[in-house]
Amino acid sequence: MLDKPFRVLPELTETNRHFWQGGQEGELRFPRCQRCRTWIHPPTPVCPECLGKDLAVEAVSGRATVLTFTLNHQQWVPSPDHPYAIAIVELEEQEGLRLTTNVVHCAAEDVRIGMPVQVVFEQYEDVWLPLFEPAGAV
Amino acid sequence: MEALERRACVTGVGQSQVGRRLMRDPLELTLDACLAAIEDAGLTRDDIDGLSTYPGGVDLSPGFSGAGVIQVQDALRLELDWFTGGVEMSGQLGSVINACMAVATGLARHVLCFRSIWESTAQGKSGRGGFGLGSVDESRRRVGEEMQWTIPFRSYSPANWIGMFAQRHFHEFGTTREQMAQIPLNARKNAQVNPKAIYRDPLTLHEYLAARLISTPFCLYDCDVPVDGATAVIVSHVDAAKDCRKPPLHVEAVGSALRGRPSWYLFDDLTTMAMRDAGKMLWERTDLKPADVDVAELYDGFSFLTMAWLEALGFCGKGESGSFIEGGRRIARDGELPLNTDGGQLSAGRLHGYGFLHEACVQLWGEGGERQVAGDPTVAVAAAGGGTQGGCLLLTRG
Q1: How near does any CA of chain A get to the CA of B327, in Å?
Q2: Which of A11, A57, B93, B314 has a CA positioned 20 to 30 A from the CA of residue A33?
């Protein structure tokens, strides 16, 4: 198995820890408005829909669709795994609930727009990065 | 509603030496451009009572800012009634739109606007790097704020971020790399007759398609070329413009809107970006129509951005920019919509937004020399940025 590629990691704070460490329990978590049920990302203290402040962290299914992607060829950080796939995925829970991520566990050339994917976590130090693999992958 | 920007006009432009790794003091380049613009307008520094710039004196990445308000005010000992500099505005030309508002409201009569950049020298031999990387040896470095949502996924560059919009456009509308190639090929043709352009050798479609990929669908030629150089323009009140040397170029309308989410991955429509709303707003403020435009100078930090601006400004329908530019005839200097007539940032150099306004003015004043568009153009549009923030101006002469 290839070593994990180099990554610059996020700085953990009280407002983002739920997201970057939810993977420890296998959960992809976002703040959610308890009044109008809107999922919120990135985290913010006020619901952008109803402007309510009663927010709580909840887990989503982890099922998503690839909205678009790019195969990165440029060696910003040299490594043997180029090109790799960077994608924008949308979680099935809500239109507009999106992440930038990597599609993994398939050939980069096989990534397609509209492809169903599911979350898979990759741990680096105290961070669990939500990456996505083709749905149904074993 | 009175469009107050019509009280503003451009009365002079100036540009420093432009080149790769000039190893010159960026403040000197900045002052060269500023003094040239003041002279071009037929003014002296004593006439300048306003100063406006993007992004201000903050180096967000190596060489991103050659000087800010404070350095230029002090270097030229300007006596200012109004000034502003910063990065949170309607793109790079937001600083010019701000200047229009300042003269329209009487806060200033002649505003010196500038954009200075020295990325080529600052980046050095290592070339253009990714964002958030710093030195990779610093393996314990971490990113916060907005960058935390992209950088950990090895998405280091606008080439990645904007490439994904282009990919979605290709998917929805059948756009092709052969079509997109016309943006850099057209730019290179125009650069061949611009003595200040960086890349002037002919470029063919075959060479474009054979070039190394950066981030699909972008190859090397879809990415602009970092340079050192500064550009300045003088924005004057229409009444004060009577004192100037050249015929004033009237600001007919501006587009400064920010309506969607200002994000590289959360914008509602992944086939366009912030330029959609800035472009729409511009035409809401004038009776002129896209068909009235004689010359278009549209931001090309990446080739796809120009295509998105063509759609945003209504030069073609939504999703139709690929077929609009196909073959390159329409956008050639002798076509129906001459585009990026100095070679743009792709071939003339990444002057970061101000180059487009500079060239629009050059064309309207008939000063383009060998690259001058025929037919005495009187209406031009200049647009800059457009990704997460963008701005555009419609200029008329006479």
Answers
A1: 25
A2: A11
